[in-house]
Write a structure and sequence with these properties.
Strand order of the largest sheet: 3-2-1-4-5-6-7
CATH architecture of the largest domain: 3-Layer(aba) Sandwich
Structural class: alpha/beta
Radius of gyration: 21 Å
Largest sheet: 7 strands, parallel
Number of helices: 15
Strand content: 15-25%
Length: 378
Amino acid sequence: MKMKIGIDARFYGAKNKGLGRYTEKLIQELEKIDKKNHYFIFLRKDNYSDYHPSNKNFQKVLADFPWYSLKEQIFFPRLLYKLQCDLVHFLHFNVPLMYKRSFIVTIHDLTLFHFPTHKNSTHNWLWYKIKYKTYHWMMKKIIQKAQKIITISNFTANDIKKYFGNKIAGKIKVIYEAPSIFIKKEKFSYLKKKYAIKIPYLLYVGNAYPHKNLERLVDAFQIFKKQFPQYSLVLVGKNDFFYQRLKKYIKLKKIDSIIIVDTLTDKELKTIYQKADLFIFPSLYEGFGLPPLEAMAENLPVISSQHGCMQEILGESVVYFNGKDVDNMVEVMINVIKNVKLRNKLKEKGKEQIKKYNWKKTALDTFKVYSGFKKNEK
């Protein structure tokens, strides 16, 4: 039976990084798979023109409601009711609680359950505490109300069961994400001039939230530099409050060979990956972790913290270190840079590892979840 399916795509686009990439790639692949059901793709003003449907059954709808806002909670449900959606897929946990009809939610991680510190927020202490309590309450309500919960790793699935009980296990479906394959690249000479990047360099791509552990990476690089003074460290991420704070830390450490590059285009990112000698992922908590896989797709060797999720996603294709132990991080960095054979081995293992993930499979598995939904479930 034909259904009207809504997808909350307000995070659509690479500018929103991991979540934006997931939204973009999922919709692109669903367009190729489903020629039967009608889709409403909800977008904000700033990304409305970025999406161009290639399937006549996919319809753009303006839903310019800020994330985590009162407008989102009040006016978004009204729009969903007006369009009479049989099923809505919220691609993040910010589900309008006033929406009473059937929905699926993708929960990427429970970061705030593990890192509930004021450092993770730009707000004052009291406002952060209110926000934190609201997050817990909302997550509990959403998990209770959702028809299905999609998680992007077994690690996150187990995390959810740990906090909310095994009775919800039947609701959970694990569907992996995948690395993006960038087709075109930018000339390195252009990037060298624009960002003052010099070869050789080590690379990190991602945000600078406290759980990403970049201060320890800076400390490790400072020690690494004593043995390899020719190297620089390139950090790629949105120039927000957290990167501004990291810049202050770097200045305090008096390190002049760390280059922070603001959000890149896909063409620029491809080149940045390809020209690096090593990708370092020091994160203390992840729900999936796309950047290491993207690095592998560009033939870049990877080292990573030994966080449980990263071991699940990256398998034996990387060298792991203790993310809380700077000396261990330095030891692994030095060993891999010194050992050309090991770097080549990691490149080959990376090529095999990324074969386990592709966006077509992500979309097919998600479509199966939609197809298992009965239209009369309200």
